[in-house]
Design goal:
By secondary structure, the protein is mainly α. It folds into three domains: 116 residues, Fumarate Reductase Iron-sulfur Protein, Chain B, domain 2; 161 residues, no CATH class; 120 residues, 3-Layer(aba) Sandwich (Rossmann fold), CATH 3.40.50. Helix content is 50%, strand content 5%. It has 21 helices and seven strands. The strands form two sheets. A four-stranded parallel beta sheet has the order 2-1-3-4. It is globular and about 75 Å long. The chain starts with 14 loop residues before the first helix and ends in an 11-residue tail after the last helix. This is (Fe-S)-binding protein. GO terms for molecular function: 4 iron, 4 sulfur cluster binding; metal ion binding; oxidoreductase activity. Keywords: 4Fe-4S, Electron transport, Iron, Iron-sulfur, Metal-binding, Transport.
């Protein structure tokens, strides 16, 4: 069968197509059609000829199969050091074979590539830190995902996620109207506790343009309220855009590079329209990577930088604490042992290794590092889209063992994780393994201990 009704090489640009995918519970029809999907060899060869550049070719050729990357991979460690989980094996047995003989790729091989690219790798880039030749398997797996997406071999959930970005410019079906209404609702809900609090929408020339993860208006609107409260206490001149408010990119996880460009350009258009001095990204690692690190290149910006200076939320928090915009009540600092989950996407991709430790010095009396930590920390186990992929849930849960053991070794029962994927993975880890931990973003913890200036306090 060349292409199915749901599983095919078509882009999800219409709501009808998206609705049909959503109606296919657990992707039953989608995966049945996947088993019959043909490989378009001409398109595959053409794509490789246009996109396979010298860097990737060199990486594939110079790999010495030394195995130095093996212990860097949490999947390898969690799966009893299975040789087929060694990063170099995973990339050579998929992309390496595909590049050498694209005409021989059949359905079974493409499904093997798909199951490896999304089910055995989170593109955390940790292996690249340990390769003596600097080979980055995370980058190559991202490239492989793009090839597979163009052929229709992509997990059902990410076909949907890519379509959401194309249609809504958000990873979920949240319209601009929904977003604005949620902001207005949260401002109204917070007014009694914080008189005068506003969530300014489309304010031009603000010091900060704040952008979020679509999960917040869809499922966690209190996160938006908490951000507003902290900006209010800090006396920030800030705003949110009515359009271009969504930072995340499931399209990046899917390998849909055209949708990645569309998504990030919606955020940059908001920057151009509102002309803020800076942008602050919510507590989400991949949102920061997609919009701040990768985004400028997808958008073709020669500078390699976003149109205005852009910060991850941890950077704003550290700055606010350092400058005294936020002041912590010493009596309310975290007394119990606490540890911190470093997000791969702003530790290894942006180098924000010391900023979180600065925050911990202000808010925690017994901070305990995971080992290893900072840029050497292991992935939470749910990055790269894996949290949301039912097809690979068992593999994801096995991979969580490494993070579980890291947390247990600290003796801490509270884990701070300023990243949606990390937060989700640690939540799921507790549901699976019942190790008796709690997890939190920074915002609610800060609100419990920050000193509210008298003129901002509600009357008793």
């Amino acid at each position: 069968m060349p292409e199915g009704t749901l599983c095919n090489r078509k882009m999800v640009n219409e709501k009808e197509f998206l609705s049909a995918l959503l109606a296919d519970k657990q992707g039953k029809q989608y995966y049945a059609e996947l088993n019959e999907l043909d490989v378009d060899h001409k398109k595959l060869v053409d794509t490789l000829s246009k996109t396979l550049k010298s860097r990737t070719k060199t990486w594939l050729e110079i790999c010495a199969h030394c195995g130095m990357c093996a212990d860097s991979c949490f999947f390898y460690l969690a799966n009893k050091k299975d040789p087929e989980q060694v990063p170099s094996y995973k990339i050579q047995s998929t992309l390496g074979r595909l590049v050498k003989a694209p005409h021989k790729a059949d359905n079974a091989f493409m499904q093997y590539c798909m199951d490896t690219a999304w089910g055995k790798c989170t593109c955390c880039n940790r292996c690249g830190s340990y390769c003596p030749f600097g080979i980055d398997m995370g980058v190559m797996f991202s490239y492989l995902r793009g090839l597979l997406f163009s052929q229709g071999f992509v997990p059902w959930e990410l076909k949907i996620g890519s379509g959401m970005h194309r249609i809504y410019q958000a990873q979920m079906d949240v319209t601009s109207e929904d977003w604005v209404e949620t902001c207005e609702w949260m401002a109204e809900e917070s007014e009694e506790e914080y008189p005068g609090l506003e969530i300014p929408i489309d304010k031009e020339g603000a010091d900060i343009m704040y952008t979020v993860n679509a999960r917040e208006p869809k499922h966690y609107p209190q996160d938006i309220a908490e951000a507003a409260m902290l900006f209010h206490i800090a006396g920030e001149n800030w705003t949110v855009p009515s359009r271009g408010w969504e930072e995340t990119s499931l399209a990046m996880f899917a390998g849909d590079w055209e949708a990645c460009k569309m998504q990030v350009e919606s955020v940059y258009a908001a920057m151009d329209r509102l002309k803020p001095k800076r942008m602050v990204v919510t507590e989400c690692g991949h949102a920061y990577r997609a919009t701040v690190i990768e985004g400028p290149y997808w958008a073709g910006l020669a500078s390699g930088k976003t149109p205005v200076e852009s910060l991850h939320y941890v950077e704003w928090v550290a700055e606010a604490l350092r400058t005294g915009k936020l002041k912590i009540d010493p009596a309310k600092k975290i007394k119990e042992p606490v540890t911190y989950q470093d997000s791969c996407n702003y530790i290894r991709n942006a180098g924000l290794r010391d900023i979180p430790r600065e925050i911990m010095s202000y808010i925690a009396e017994d901070f305990r590092e995971m080992k290893p930590c900072k840029e050497h920390n292991f992935c939470c186990g749910g990055g790269g889209g894996m949290n949301g992929l039912g097809r690979y849930r068992e593999q994801r849960n096995i991979g969580l063992k490494v993070k579980r053991d890291q947390i247990l070794a600290t003796g801490a029962k509270l884990v701070i994780s300023p990243c949606h994927n990390c937060w989700d993975a640690i939540r799921d880890m507790e549901e699976v393994y019942r190790i008796g931990i709690r997890w939190s973003f920074l915002k609610p913890l800060l609100l419990d201990m920050v000193i509210v200036p008298e003129h901002l306090r509600a009357e008793e």
